[in-house]
Every structure is written in C-alpha cells, then in structure tokens.
Amino acid sequence: xxxxxxxxxxxxxxxxxxxxxxxxxxxxxxxxxxxxxxxxxxxxxxxxxxxxxxxxxxxxxxxxxxxxxxxxxxxxxxxxxxxxxxxxxxxxxxxxxxxxxxxxx
Length: 105
Hints:
Layout (H helix, E strand, L loop, with lengths): L1 H29 L5 H15 L9 H8 L6 H13 L3 E6 L2 E5 L3
Antiparallel strand pairs: 1-2
C-alpha cells in the first residue's frame, strides 16, 4: 500500500517536471532568461505546478523578497508584474495581499 502511494507520488512529480520544462521553454521563447519578466513567470509557474491549491501559491510580496537574492530590483519586479498583467500572461487571483497566477500553458 505504501509502495503504491510512493509510486503515484513519483509519477505525479515526473508529470509536473515535464510540464514545468515544456512551459519554461515557451517562456524562454518570449523572454530572455535574465529578464525580470522571465524571473516572475518562472516563479509563478513553479508555484502553480507544485502547489495543490493556487491560494497556497506565491504572493507578489514573496516574489519581491525572493528577488532580493537575484540581480533584479524590487522596482523591476513590480514593473514586470504590471507588464505581464497588461499582456494577459498573468492574472490577479487576489488583491489583498496581491497574488497572481501564470496564464501561459
């Protein structure tokens, strides 16, 4: 019983990794890897794929916090989020606190 459940988890993880890879390639066709838009979309993609419920996904402020360890400024990340929303590549899930979801499949 435990072994079957472990197999199912591994299969689900494999499917998620393949989905991540496919969608990440699409994002790379639109944005350069070093762009703030790619940074935001990649994080939102991981959040969407690897969380059970979108409400448990990354908040915008968490994306900004994560960006502090990257070369992207808070301003660049916030501008990227606004730009991606205008291009309909992300949608707002909630406003307080702000949370977005990726719309690229």
